[in-house]
Amino acid sequence: MSETIFVDGILNGRVAFVTGGGTGITGGVARALAEAGVSVALVSRKLDHLQPAADAINQNGGKAIAVVADVRQPEAVENAVAQTIEQFGKIDIVVNGAAGNFLCAAEELSPNGFGTVVDIDLKGTFNVCRAAFAQLKEHRGQILNISATLHYLGTPMQLHVSAAKAGVDALTRNLAVEWGRYGIRVNGIAPGPIEDTEGMKRLVPEPVKERLRKGVPLGRFGRIADIEKAAVFICSDAASFINGVVLVVDGGHWLTGTRLG
Fold first, then answer.
1. Residue 12 pLDDT greater than 50, yes or no
2. Beta strands in the chain (DSSP E)
3. Pick from 7, 24, 175, 213: most CB atoms within 10 A?
């Protein structure tokens, strides 16, 4: 976060396990948590995405490690959790941000393409939550799942992602109910169109961007910094009675019904 609106060290002493934490929205969330006092394990399939992000956090006075793991592989996730505990002693916060996406019409979408996104986004989220459960229970921790608004209405070319994120939201609500008894809070953030992401640059053509922008009641696209602030709030004690919520951070965009197409 270039500017902070929070008290310095609001999350001091906590440890976060962040998937997809090397780049994009979840990379920003990881940086924001580190600036708030959290030690972070950045987890992804490729070290070349992770190490520069971890180095930047460490050079900025934070604490971060890079851990290579594919969230689709439960054993790899369990090993990554063990590495995090070995390095930082515990896990208080899990952020599920690993995701896959591409544009494809439903009639052209292969079973493998559909399944790959579900495996990363939905099954991967479950794998991480399950592997971290013992730590979260011990430390009365919390889970933050990065979702989307694509499935609130209908979004052309995004059937696979919409289905996966709808599943993530269901997982968020169910775990909030089942694991609340252990003091574990489970919430989500659903970003709308975020202009400074690779996805926006790669997946949304310029003419479509203008239509999308006009559909945002606040008159602008979001930025990664908007998601960072929401994440720090949800992970802080200010949100200690918030559980099972998927917080939409989109400037009111989903209410307008404006979609890709």
1. yes
2. 15-19, 39-44, 63-68, 93-96, 142-146, 185-191, 246-249
3. 175
Place of tokens 């203008």: 210
pTM of the model: 0.95
Q: Which two tokens stand for residue 62?
A: 């934070």
Domain ranges for the chain: 15-249
CATH no. of 15-249: 3.40.50.720
Contact in structure between 82 and 70 (CB atoms under 8 Å): no
Closest C-alpha to 41, from 23, 68, 59: 68
Q: Is residue 11 within a helix (H) or strand (E), and if so which, with residue range?
A: none
Asked whether the beta carbons of 68 and 8 are under 8 A apart, the reply is no
Considering only the C-alpha atoms of the chain, give the largest distance between any 2 of them, rounded to a whole number of Å.
51
Which band of pLDDT confidence, cut at 50, 70 and 90, is reported for residue 261? very low
Whole-angstrom distance, CA of residue 190 vs CA of residue 149:
6
| 163-200 pLDDT tens trace | 999 999 999 999 999 999 999 999 999 999 999 987 77
Distances (CA, A) of 48 to 43, 139, 177, 254, 261: 11, 31, 37, 35, 34
41 vs 64: CA distance, rounded Å: 6
The full length of the chain comes to: 261
d(CA 23, CA 211): 26
